[in-house]
Amino acid sequence: MTGPAAERDLPTLATVDDRPRCAWGLGAPEYVTYHDDEWGRPLHGDDALFERLCLEAFQSGLSWLTILRKRPAFREAFHGFEIERVAAFGDRDVERLLGDASIVRNRAKIAAAISNARLAADLDDGLDELLWSFAPTEPRPRPIAIGDIPALTAESTTMAKALKRQGFRFFGPTTAYALMQATGMVDDHLSSCWRAPERATPPGSEAAK
Fold first, then answer.
1. CA–CA–CA angle 179, 23, 135 (5° rounding)
2. Is the pLDDT score of 207 beyond 50?
3. What is the average per-residue pLDDT within 163-182?
4. Residue 190 forms part of a structural domain
5. Looking at residues 103-124, what average pLDDT do you find?
6. Among the options 7, 51, 56, 155, which is catalytic?
7. Cα separations (Å) of 58 from 64, 65, 106, 109, 185?
8. Burial zone of 143 (CB within 10 Å; 0-12 exposed, 13-18 middle, 19+ buried)
């Protein structure tokens, strides 16, 4: 599993202000804010989703906290993750990014981000519509413990295969599921987390928007 919920060695719940949280959502201020304000909330917009797709790929092999702390630098280096601008990156941009110590300097991941931007720019209906087309629409039991959260699902596997067929790189089924969690296509806040009661309907349904 990738993303913050992969921290399976943590206890089920923890609190910093009398509100019970998924335990991965503590340990650093960045995690508290991300847990409370972003993770599991529906996110739309081609550029916004492209940013999350890129960051999930860059996170591979690293902690999500590292990515959160570097996110402002990533946004500056990748021009706000505007798809059209990243798609226009050339060799000079690659060398610029490889020399930027404030981001994750991995040539293969940088090349994948640029390649993926070019593919996203050519989509007829946009990245938002493509990614959200794989969001589950049927409700499922909310997880009770971190061990109840899957590493991947049938939907994330289908998403990864579809994007791979189109040429997207650094995007396997576990990364796809982490993206689904991060963008609210699924809501994996634990049943006793204070965020859990906010939405009882499937994230992809009209009532959830």
1. 25
2. no
3. 96
4. yes
5. 98
6. 56
7. 9, 12, 8, 6, 20
8. buried
24, 31, 39, 64: the active-site residue: 64
The reported pTM is 0.87
For residue 207, being part of any structural domain is answered with no
Let me know if 56 is a catalytic residue: yes
Q: pLDDT tens-digit profile of 62-105?
A: 999 999 999 999 999 999 999 999 999 999 999 999 999 999 99
Specify the CATH number for the domain of residue 45. Answer: 1.10.340.30
Name the residue among 23, 56, 43, 30 with its Cα closest to residue 143: 23
Residue 22 DSSP SS3: strand
Residue of 31, 34, 39, 194 marked active site:
34
At 76, which helix (H) or strand (E)? helix 64-77
Q: Is 34 a catalytic residue?
A: yes
Residue 41's contacts (CB-CB under 8 Å, 6 or more residues apart) are: 184
Domain-located, residue 204: no
The two tokens of residue 23 are 């335990």
Q: Which domain holds residue 170?
A: 15-197
* Nearest C-alpha neighbor of 55 from the set 35, 72, 43: 72
